[in-house]
Write a structure and sequence with these properties.
Blueprint lengths: L1 E8 L3 H11 L4 E6 L13 E8 L2 E6 L2 E7 L9 H28 L14 H9 L5 H9 L3 H18 L7 E8 L1 E2 L11 E2 L4 H18 L7 E9 L7 H14 L7 E5 L8 H9 L4 E3 L7 H7 L5 H14 L4 E7 L6 H14 L3 E6 L7 H4 L12 H14 L3 E6 L10 E5 L6 H7 L4 E5 L4 E6 L7 E6 L4 H6 L1 H11 L1
Parallel strand pairs: 1-2, 1-3, 6-9, 6-16, 7-8, 9-10, 10-11, 11-12, 12-13
Antiparallel strand pairs: 3-4, 4-5, 13-15, 14-15, 17-18
């Protein structure tokens, strides 16, 4: 089946497209702006959505049949013409999406846990309303965006905890530093990051480390009027490089940046097969305060299938080594919806992780990315779809909260299984501050390394914040050869 969408009048292709794709996640969707097709041109196997949109009304047709027509009025008091138009457009868009949602839900028999919300930051709405002391956030999320009561309640909990944590940080006068090391022991079948198998790229690793240190030196003074508050080493898997190479990058950061105001220094030690006692001891001695050891699943059959070259036992061993080295803030990442898994597999994984009692647990939902093997080689995994993913996510939430972990950050990605989300749970005082700062877009992020994306905020804009990005090239060889250009891009933007 193919879904064809024809829009006439207002062009809201970008607004309606994500919602329609959420209802038809594995279907070819074609969106045309310009009006209805002639009935004779529409093959019988297609599902056709026609939208006629005007400033004062909209009409929805499914397979040529009129199913909904609504008038639109807007009577808000404008702060300025620009703000008025922005609010008016949002109100019209939400009314249209609610109508479209209800008709597609009737037609398909499906509901979406986050309703008409398709962006990556559903908690941002609650966060802003809480900042302004607005009440009734749960009912607002349910009525305005058709969120399920459970998701609306989760958004409220996360936003309240974020606001509490950010209230103790002078984030407006601070910034965060991201350092990317894009190498991994192997590439997982769901991964689309700019990760490079370290065995295949071994000859480039030292040149990359040298280029990265050069970018650190070239950009460390760009935000000297602000205080560095969090540092995050991500990837890839930063611990995939040698102890000496990783130490040299950490030392360069400490040499070039003023670390006096740093509240959190995180290193993703994500793959258990990249960790040993020497490396963990080095990280502890360097003052790293938080690490991640990420099993994704504790089922060996799943680890083998997704391409992780380590055992579940190695995850336990790595965690114990980290505790022995003195780390008291360890996160563990899990993924709901991995190839071939069923509900009982998630139960087993959580039980095994629970025995270790990490300080925080992040539960991701599998997202199908275009560049991942799950998509490019989908014929190899077509019979291995996970089942009951929404149930896995709900069980994980109950599991974590029953054990004293609180949800503290939440985000979504495109093409997430069953329209779900990623949530970080933590014991009090063990939250990842960097995660909140980047998700709520309240702070500048200086990002270094291949594929890193810096974010800057101009708070002097008349109508509020404006966000901009400065992106580095993803390819390691290009990054090395164009390192001067990468640094220059940031100097021009910041």
């Amino acid at each position: 089946m193919q879904v064809k969408v024809n829009i006439s009048g207002l062009d809201l292709s970008q607004e309606v497209g994500p919602l329609i794709r959420s209802f038809f996640p594995k279907t070819d969707i074609e969106i045309n702006y310009g009006g209805k097709e002639e009935a004779a041109e529409v093959p019988e196997e297609n599902f056709v959505i026609d939208l006629e949109l005007d400033d004062l009304w909209f009409k929805i047709f499914l397979n040529g049949e009129p199913v909904r027509e609504e008038s639109f009025t807007y009577a808000d008091v404008p702060d300025s013409n620009m703000v008025y138009e922005k609010r008016k457009k949002r109100a019209y868009k939400n009314q249209l999406l609610r109508g479209l949602y209800r008709e597609l839900s009737k037609k398909t028999g499906r509901t979406l846990p986050w309703g008409i919300l398709t962006g990556v930051r559903p908690t941002k709405l609650c966060f802003e309303r809480l900042k302004n002391n607005t009440v009734g956030n749960i009912s607002y999320m349910m009525d305005e965006y058709l969120c399920s009561p459970r998701k609306a309640g989760m958004a409220q909990k996360v936003a309240a905890r974020e606001l509490e944590l950010l209230g103790s940080i002078d984030y407006k006068n601070g910034y965060s530093l991201y350092v990317g090391i894009p190498f991994c022991p192997s590439i997982c079948n769901y991964c689309s990051f700019g990760s490079h198998p370290i065995d295949r790229f071994a000859s480039m690793v030292q040149d990359y480390i040298d280029a990265l240190k050069k970018e650190i030196e070239s950009t460390c003074s760009l935000l000297k009027d602000k205080k560095l508050q969090t540092v995050y080493f991500g990837g890839g898997t930063p611990t995939a490089v040698t102890t000496g190479q990783l130490k040299s990058v950490i030392d360069k950061v400490k040499e070039c940046f003023d670390m006096e105001s740093v509240l959190e220094f995180t290193v993703e030690a994500g793959r258990p097969d990249s960790i040993d006692e020497e490396k963990l001891q080095m990280l502890k001695e360097e003052g790293i305060t938080r690490i991640s050891i990420n099993p994704q699943s504790m089922r060996q059959k799943t680890l083998d299938l997704i391409g992780r070259r380590h055992t579940a036992e190695q995850t336990v061993e790595a965690f114990m080594l980290a505790r022995k080295a003195g780390f008291d803030n360890i996160n563990m990442d899990l993924i709901a919806g991995l190839s071939g898994e069923v509900f009982e597999d998630m139960q087993y994984t959580l039980d095994e992780v629970g025995k270790l009692s990490p300080d925080s647990i992040t539960v991701h939902t599998l997202a199908l990315k275009r560049a991942a093997k799950l998509t490019t080689e989908k014929e190899n995994y077509s019979s291995m779809e996970a089942k009951d993913v929404a149930r896995m996510v709900e069980y994980a939430a109950d599991f974590c909260m029953d054990r004293g972990y609180e949800p503290y950050y939440l985000y979504r990605q495109k093409n997430m299984t069953e329209n779900l989300e990623n949530i970080g749970y933590a014991h009090r005082g063990k939250e990842g501050l960097y995660n909140i700062l980047i998700m709520e877009e309240v702070q500048m992020i200086l990002a270094l390394g291949a594929g890193a994306s810096s974010k800057f905020i101009d708070r002097n804009m008349t109508n509020g914040r404006r966000f901009g990005r400065v992106e580095n090239v993803k390819n390691v060889a290009e990054y090395i050869s164009r390192i001067n250009e990468m640094a220059e891009r940031k100097k021009n933007a910041f």
